[in-house]
Design a protein that fits this description.
Helix content: 25-40%
Distance between the termini: 90 Å
Strand content: 15-25%
CATH superfamily of the largest domain: Alpha/Beta hydrolase fold, catalytic domain
CATH topology of the largest domain: Rossmann fold
Largest sheet: 10 strands, mixed
Order of helices and strands: HEEEEHEEEEHEHEHHHHHHHHEEHHEHEH
Amino acid sequence: MKKLTTILVLLLVFGTSLRAQNRKIPVDTTIVTTHSTTINGTKINYNATAGMQPVWDKMGKPIATLQYTYYKRTNTATDANRPLLISFNGGPGSASVWMHVAYTGPKVLNIDDEGYPVQPYGVSENPYSVLDVADIVFINPVNTGYSRTIPENGKEVDRDQFFGINADIKYLAEWLNTFVSRNNRWRSPKYIIGESYGGTRVAGLALELQESQWMYLNGVIMVSPADYLVFNSDAAISSALNLPYFTAAAWHHKMLPSALQQKDLLEILPEAEDFAINELMPALAKGGFISDADRKKIASKMSYYSGISEESIMQNNLDVPTRFFWKELLRDRSGHTIGRLDSRYLGLDKREAGVGPDYSAELTSWLHSFTPAINFYMRDHLNFKTDIKYNMFGSVRPWNNENNNVRDNLRKAMAENPYLNVLFQSGYYDGATTYFNAKYTMWQLDPSGKMKDRLSFQGYRSGHMMYLRREDLKAANDHLRAFIQNTSSTGKSAKY
């Protein structure tokens, strides 16, 4: 009997192995579904294409395949004036999920009005989506979402072709040329939107698309953009620019002195910005050679605008790390930490002591709702079914940050293309890519000031993903809608 049982077990295992298949994803495919929704009171019919499109090497051999979702409105005139919005998230290594099912797409997460998870997980209609004025494609770069490299003879392709500032820009520009051609969108006004590291990506893509693919854009949208030229600069710049964010976060948690706390946020931020630029930045520039009297004076004003003690500021030599601020702000009141990407969120650490939080309170909250929602949505709504894991964050490290010229490349793209406009969108409570960093990037983009009428900024009372707050979801989409409508008009010559 024991021998017979062993034989049966072997047959079951052998039979299973015969039926099993290698886990792989199609290299080049499309799955189209039809849908309808209501946006701003208007019925919108649309097709959703969940597809895979290859990345080819110079010899025409596929070396990777990118998963994308393309929404095309069907109950409107199919003329050349219909804009196309091309959407990327950041990381690097982050999937397109965030803006896809929470910002501009036709579906949004089941979350409460402030952005916190609600069960059962899933999606609902987005009544504010910009699909009424533009078709949208959400793209997952290599190793994000379902996108993957294609090994040859069991060996992975050269990672240097994908994982770096300039490599990323180069292959994505080539990929977009194919996508635009396949979908007959060459005559459409085109916009690229990037969140966080996606800001770096789309800033570089603007010039790469023009000079290597001969594709000219009408707009670039920078959502909570990451500017590594700021992050890697000396404390006089990088640290001073964080101060207005400290003010915003402290105001939200009611930690400012009453003279500031009783005012509206937008009344006090200009004060903090003025102090950061005209007093704190010059003080930090003096480093250890600042006088004791001036050091104390600056520390006192920093405390006034940040809600943390003058003593802790002095102990940090006026250069207060954001990580320390997230731990320090509520340490003596409730012992909570505050979120990095959205400082409205609270965390609980093992110890109140320390110089930084144990974890990112906001990110763990977001993963609660985003991860089940995108997996459910892709399979059940878009009929895209695969055993490949959807990578919320993929393996892209090490990432080559050398030769970062994207800020100047965007300036050059604007100079070459009079149609090109840039919109910045930031949340005041974002402690990772702060709103004042975004303003500073905008100011530095064109030092001549000759193109500043084509640069604009919008701020919101939320964090990195400002659209998670219901009020800001509507406002941010309205600003984006107006930007598209105001910059895609026909009949105007592209000249100075």
